[in-house]
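Supplementary Text 2. Reproducibility record for the structural model of the 135-residue chain.

All settings were left at their defaults, and a single model was retained for analysis rather than an ensemble. We include the record here because the model underlies the residue-level annotations in Supplementary Table 4.
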Amino acid sequence: MKTKHFLESADVKAIAAAAEAEALKNHWAVTIAIVDDGGHLLALQRLDGAPAISSYIAPAKANTAALGRRESKVYEDVINGGRISFLSAPEIKGMLEGGVPIVKDGQFIGAVGVSGVKSNEDAQIAKVGIAALGL
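Retained model, structure tokens:
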């Protein structure tokens, strides 16, 4: 039987704090969502001034990255490349850049999704949050 890594409460808090610090440093009003490996929401933080819709988009991006085990940008690129039928994929709602999986020792243990600024900036915030774990 294999050992399975998982996000603990302290990990979620560290990710959230680092992601928030990155957003605030850049004066970006965003929503940050953190999910487990099944896409279940562990944390959601909507910073002051973040658009209301971002509180739906960030968890969707995180969920997509967790379930797909890849950055949500991959799906955006597939669709933009002409494979629009992928829009019908079940349970994948956040097919925009900004969802980043969390990987420890080759195991996908969760994801971070960010929404509120340009998609590449959303991804930047997510990656800084994940980097706080030192994986």
